[in-house]
Amino acid sequence: MTNLHFHWQKVPVPGHHGEKVSENEFYTHTPGNNKYLVNYHVVPLGETSPPSDLRATENRAFEANIKQNSPDFSFYTSEHNDGHEGNSCRNGEYTPGDVRSPTGKELWRKWKFQYTGNARVPYWIVRVPKDIIWGHGGLWSDNSIAMLGALFRMEFPLAGGKVATPKPVTAPRSPDLGQLNRDRHASE
Asked: Which of 27, 50, 90, 113 could form a disulfide with 73 if both were Cys (CB 3.0 to 4.6 A apart)?
């Protein structure tokens, strides 16, 4: 077969006010690696000290993030990301019951979810530094779990020491099918 040619259409970029790019951009890049779709970056705010009221002995940053609201989208991590989490995820099997001793290498940092200016959509596509998630296997690292705890608390904030009642969400009413049928037949 010779002269095989595949034509890519120009498609609008979500949230970019009419800008169009080749659909090849969306076909060949995963959402997290597509500059047009990433709508948040995790940015470092620097090293910090741990909050004083923590009781946990493992992944103390998770406790710090889950115990407090963070209206400025900031959060803590506390582990030096050295791959020690590999003990709990081997050969594609996650064993959360395995006891892992702390590395003794606490490195407290503060981070922030920062909006990139891309499309405001009801989901986040976030670029996260390797200090938090190292490759595809690092999703279960202590730092990643701490970040996920912060995301949970942002979605379900505390009020008076308890999870606040979520904002009510109402779905649009379904149309009256009888009325739709009457309207459709009225014009005939």
From this structure: 113
Classified as helix, coil or strand, 33 is helix
By C-alpha distance, which of 118, 117, 116, 150 is closest to 132? 150
pLDDT at 97: 64
- Residue found by looking up tokens 């009888």 in the block: 178
User: At residue 63, does pLDDT exceed 80?
Assistant: yes
Which helix (H) or strand (E) segment holds residue 44: the answer is: strand 40-47
Side chain identity, residue 123: Y
- pLDDT at residue 121 tops 80: no
pLDDT at 157: 94
The CB density around residue 65, as the number of other CB atoms within 10 Å, is: 26
* Structure-token match 């889950």, residue found: 66
Buried b (16+ CB within 10 A) or exposed e, 93-118: eeeeeeeeeeeeeeebbbbbbeeeeb
165 has a pLDDT exceeding 80: yes
Task: Return d(Cα 160, Cα 151) in angstroms, integer.
Answer: 19
**Alpha-carbon span 176 to 184, nearest angstrom:** 12
pLDDT category of residue 156 using cuts at 50, 70 and 90: very high
* Identity of the amino acid at 16: H
Q: Please give the structure tokens belonging to residue 142.
A: 């202590």
